[in-house]
Amino acid sequence: MAREYSGLQMHHQLEAKRKRLTWILGVSALCILFYVLGAWQTTPSSQYDVYTRVGCDNNSATSDSNGSIQSLTNLDFASHHQVALDSSKTISQFPPCDMAYSEYTPCQDKVRGRKFDRDMMKYRERHCPTKQEMLLCLIPAPPKYKTPFKWPQSRDYAWYDNIPHKELSIEKAVQNWIQVEGDRFRFPGGGTMFPRGADAYIDDIGELIPLTDGNIRTAVDTGCGVASFGAYLLKRNILTMSFAPRDTHEAQVQFALERGVPAMIGIIGSMRLPYPARAFDLAHCSRCLIPWQNNEGLYLMEVDRILRPGGHWILSGPPINWKKYWRGWERTKEDLKQEQDAIENVARRLCWKKVTENNDLAIWQKPINHVGCVKEVMCKSEDPDTAWYRSLEACITPVPQVVSSDEVAGGELLKWPERAFAVPPRLSRGSVPGLGVDRFIEDNEQWKDKIAHYNRIIAPLRSGRYRNIMDMNAYLGGFAAAVAKYPVWVMNVIPAHIDYDTLGVIYERGLIGTYQDWCEAFSTYPRTYDLIHASGLFTLYQHRCDITYILLEMDRILRPEGSVIFRDTVELLVKIKSITDGMRWKSHIVDHESGPFNPEKILVAVKTYWTGEATKKKPK
């Protein structure tokens, strides 16, 4: 009996093991089955013949490598992820603003500006509305608004209905800034000091300093007009930050951006320009009307701050070549000579070397370091990069220390395009606390996957659909570097109050950008960007200010049918979507590029096409 019991016991043990194994295999098979079903449901299936416009409906769209759109199932988290944010009371549908606001620039409003001092052009600096003055409505496009021309055709043409202003075509007719041809504007490339066109003017500069060997990549054009100088530098792989005030030359910066050329509303007045120290390889002024010699050379000292060691400053127009032009400028010889002597004196105080003065051009070069410069006039401020609402100082911004007179202060940069992915000196030297070389390399690798994912969920970046792109929280500039091979440019924005300042790193990569507090409006006209990227931005700002106004600002600067990519937590994206649904946007949430298990998700939104109504004339 003992043997029989022992054998029966062994039989039951084997049976129990077999059942456990069957149960484990069954559960595993079900897990695999459900995983495959889930993956199959989120895999693009149907295709449309040609990509025309981004559409977002119940089955959202993604695009393949050919530009065709594919079906992608939406992720719906609304009922499970709610979060309380600093936002206005819920508005189901935001109304359109009056057509009088069609070209509204909140922080450069002419009426508000008149309340401020005209000394040092303070009335044309940024003066933003209070929260009580901020608009809770959508800025309308002109009644006959059209999709802008694609680059590179946009460099030479823009639709009249998009910017219905003929003033510059009349005021600057002789100088060939802009011409009206039927239903469009044409930009011949002319300028006040380059009647033969910007291309020939740049060729003249190229005879004096090398422009095409990759050493000069970033430039700043002060008082840019319609940015023809920056437009034609692009063909030489030089990326220019052009800026001009909103003044009597109506819509000049708006024209620049409509052309697909980087530009901002800005002015050298009483405040630092919103760029870091040692940012630009080249600075340019062509009859920009800035009194460089005034205020102890304050404005030229600001150019020195943002100019990279070894960088060049180019000046054409008054007072250069005054012996030839003094009558046309309606000024005396003595006055013009005195002005040039004063500029030369400031340049010497800055330790600049005058490279040449040839016909209408004068070029100076900033030294590669400050060895041998007068130390008494150096600024005492700790951080030369601080530039958001920081007053100008009548002193020379010091550059990093060097160990020898032939060393480039702050580190030597590689030529373009190698410098886009080379480790920036600010990181290799540990100038940005908390960020090092390893993080930079890792970020570059991550952007390969991100761009591949974006090319699936929106129109491919190489398709020509997008030209002007803004990265609202640019970090290390990885997005801009990754898309540099496409026919686009990126305005990299670093939030002004962020813990780490990486805008200097971005410029060292050969990219451009600016500081900005997103609780305020950006210095641009409405409808000037095709694609906006906002990664982690609302995590930064959810407790700083009302996110509704940030979203309304995004709507203001986004072109009709433009796209937005948000990256953030599900809770924040659900809240953002609930607001943008009332802004005539269509949107959907999709998974992170690494898959559904990543807690960060992506909200893809498209601003629908709509315009304001034409103002009806009252019957007499």
TrEMBL record:
Protein name in the entry: Methyltransferase
Lineage: Eukaryota, Viridiplantae, Streptophyta, Embryophyta, Tracheophyta
Recorded GO CC terms: endoplasmic reticulum membrane; endosome; trans-Golgi network
Membrane topology: Single-pass type II membrane protein
Top-level taxon of the source organism: Eukaryota
Coiled-coil portions: none
Main location: endoplasmic reticulum
GO MF term list: methyltransferase activity
